[in-house]
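Protocol step 4 of 6: record predicted structures for both targets in the notebook before any analysis. Target 1:
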Amino acid sequence: MIGLRQWQATTDMKKGRWQPGTVGSLILFVWSLALVFVTPLPRLWIAGLLALLAAVLLYPQSLRRLLQPRWLLLLGLMSVPSLFLPGRPLLALGPLTLTAEGVQGAWQMLLRATVILAAVDGFTASVSVSEMAGLFERAGLRGLGFATGVALNLLPILRDSIAITWHSLRMRGGFRRHRLRATRYFLVTVVAGAVQRAEEIALAAEARAYSPDGGRASPLRHGAVDPYLLLACVALLLALRLWP
């Protein structure tokens, strides 16, 4: 058992060497957003594939969560209105007309939304509230880092709370009858849970005598791959942006 534990600890240490630190996670987050907003449209699909490949390699859980039916349904609903933009008609669906410009706009919106959701989920899962506060405090924005860190780190908690509340109501037959009342209970439960969690974080910060004016930058995790990651991200972004 001792040998097995030592082997597992050594394996985790080796894996940790290839994981980005706090600055590396921020670089990946900004790089993913810049790829899908700065890259010209003819090469947008290449930028999206690069961002999703980075998410698969470094944050596989984030992309795996996006493949759940509810997220796929949300992404699909977000891209449907773009299908009927004015332009060259392809197919008539009753009073609506599917256009070539609409199809192009729909897949662009779908790709951008997927990359943004994967980047946000991966960043919030890998960077803690204290590390995010440290980033902002080092930039001179005291207090904003703590508030932003709490808001972003509440997203996974809010997502889990929504899933648990939904399944609890559904298993108890809450949506078979009085669906409007069940939906109201669902929304009230989710909002109350989020407010309670935020209040717990604020009370914990107050108990530790946290103050935005007197706060100091907490130490950040440093990854061995962060400098190489920065060079690779800048090089790929410039290549896609300036490629003739």
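Target 2:
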Amino acid sequence: MKTETAKKVKTVNGKQRSSQKITPCLWFDDQAKEAATFYTSLFKNARIGTTTHYGKEGYEIHGQPEGRVMTVEFEIEGFQFVGLNGGPHFKFTPAISFFVLCESTNQVDSLWNKLAKGGQALMPLDKYDWSEKYGWIQDKFGLSWQLMVAQDKITPKIIPSLMFVGDQAGNAEEAIHFYTHVFKDSSVGQIARYGPGQEPDKEGTIMYADFTLKNQRFAAMDSAQDHQFNFNEAVSLTINCDTQEEVDYYWQKLSAVPEAEQCGWLKDKYGVSWQVSPTVLQKMMSDSDQKKVDRVMKAFLQMKKFDIKKLKKAFEEKN
């Protein structure tokens, strides 16, 4: 599959669950099922959900053989993810990581030891001012996790974190206010700022902040260190929309890079990738009639912003 057409397959994560408004989609080469199995093995409260497979339609674009796993839904500690097999085009970076708030130092140790097999420590497991035990680790698939002992019995236990680096360093606070303006049922929580003498980070920028979007908790931070990475499509945030009006609203508010618009995917002005996906697509893509699924895939591969009427028309055509 050519790199310039790789983005077209990203929409196949359309099989989403509507109970979580914003669902992280994790891009793998072909290890989505393996990764989902591994991640759900780490937690007692975890499960694998629906799995979809590639059909014949769209091979010239997605390049995936018929029958290969396309998406895998999985849930850990009540937080939903989707794994997508999209080919070797995007790799995870620490720009988006996931906090895991643990109940004890023993749980931190246990998770750390499991994630460390084939992985790499980004910040060593140790005692820090903000937690009696904390560590930042990149697992064997390249996905980043920040493990720490929670200060109280807080929920949720999994929190996506955005790190603004490079030319975006210093923009975390602006981004937080932008996102909380775009999404209803949102708020800004605690903010910890860099003080004087903490170069290269500018005094007053965000050391750590939390915020909620649609009542889901997120974190953000700035880092002016010399990082060799930034946001990319390997982790995207899917907005599950019930109506065309919702699709139109989020597309208009968030899309800032026209050349990145493809099959429901967009990039905002900070470089974060989003998918604006109608929830009806999940029903279509999981239908038992493969011909219907293939017609829907053929239709959405031609789209930038999703058109629900056209998707339904393709789905309901007579075989």
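Step 5 preliminary note on target 2. The longest helix spans residues 105-116. Residues 1-18 have pLDDT under 50 and may be disordered.
Proceed to step 6 after PI sign-off.
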